[in-house]
Amino acid sequence: MSERFISMAEVIDRVSFSKTHIYRKIAAGTFPRPVPLGPQKVAFLEREIDEWIADRIDARAAGEGTERRRHRAMTRVNRDGGSDK
């Protein structure tokens, strides 16, 4: 099986994150690291991006992050008095 490099632009299109957010996630260790191709060029392995996307889908199915979202929503409702602002 051959590996395929994809550009930052394609990664941004696939995951709907900004370039800055992608680099923050890389620094945090929660996103695949790019492969340096030259002094000012990096690319990502398509397989690793596909696996990251699949992991996020699995996490959603497992309910990951729902408590945090629920807490934020309840905090907002309590702060705003239940209004839709």
Question: Your description of this structure?
Answer:
By secondary structure, the protein is of the alpha+beta class. The chain has one domain. The chain has four helices and three strands. It has helices spanning 8-15, 19-28, 46-61, 66-80, and strands at residues 5-6, 35-38, 41-45. A three-stranded antiparallel sheet has the order 1-3-2. The longest helix has 16 residues, at 46-61. The N and C termini lie far apart (51 Å). InterPro entries: AlpA. This is AlpA family transcriptional regulator. It comes from Mesorhizobium captivum. Residues 63-85 are annotated as: Disordered.
The averaged pLDDT comes out at: 89
Q: Globular, elongated, flat, extended or rod-shaped: what is the shape?
A: elongated
- What is the topology, as strand order, of the major beta sheet? 1-3-2
How large is the count of helical segments? 4
Largest sheet: 3 strands, antiparallel
Provide the helix percentage: 55-70%
Rg of Cα set = 17 Å
Secondary-structure class = alpha+beta
**Distance N terminus to C terminus?**
51 Å
DSSP E strands, number: 3
Number of domains: 1
Q: In sequence order, what are the helices and strands, one letter per element?
A: EHHEEHH
Low-confidence stretches: none
Q: Kindly estimate the percentage of residues that lie in beta strands according to DSSP.
A: 5-15%
